[in-house]
Amino acid sequence: MTKLTLYVGNKNYSSWSLRPWLALEACGVPFEDVVIPFDFEAGNPKFRDISPTGRVPVLHHGDIRVWESLAIIEYVAELFPQAGLWPEDPAERAVARSYSMEMLSGFRALRGACPMNMRREKRAINLPNDVLGDVERIETIWREAVARSGGPFLFGRFTAADAMFAPVVNRFEVYDLTRNPGSLAYMDAVKTHPAFAKWQEAALQETWIVPEDEA
């Protein structure tokens, strides 16, 4: 099979890049990753050479280009059905996709106030009510999913749905957004997954600084 190449941004900051990278890595899909950092104020002009949107992540598979996190995950799930990126049960798979789409399109207040930052020292900041509303909804998703599956992940084993929420796990940790035992247990399961640890290790070695993401 033609090699898969996933182009990503800074591993310290790029939540959109983390999602498909983590889904592929955790589920054993073979791919190469290439980091193109956000080293310009409006991104990096090199993005235009690799992506029709001028953004990352983008997956190259021969002549095929797939962009947007969830689209990349869906494409790879079709290529590697045996990898189990989604739950096997159709009903559970529908819920997993619904959660993932909600994560993709929602929680803008949280994302705006609390950028993903792997190397940020844990410290709380003052947050408006709309951010707290996002936190409450996310914790409801985690609580209901883990209660239904038995955990430790949203659908028992690690799936693409967990990858979609992984940047939020970082946000909850470094901005000290919860003390709920159930949420902390789920967060610990994600943080200690070997694939997440591998991304975080690479992120902590980066030296690039993006001031607007240093909330």
Automatic annotation (TrEMBL):
Pfam families per UniProt: GST_C_2 (PF13410), GST_N_2 (PF13409)
EC number, UniProt record: 2.5.1.18
Keywords recorded for this protein, A-Z: Transferase
Cleaved signal peptide residues: none
Enzyme class: transferase
Gene3D superfamilies given in the database record: 1.20.1050.10, Glutaredoxin (3.40.30.10)
Protein name from the UniProt record: Glutathione S-transferase
Taxonomic lineage of the native organism: Bacteria, Pseudomonadati, Pseudomonadota, Alphaproteobacteria, Hyphomicrobiales
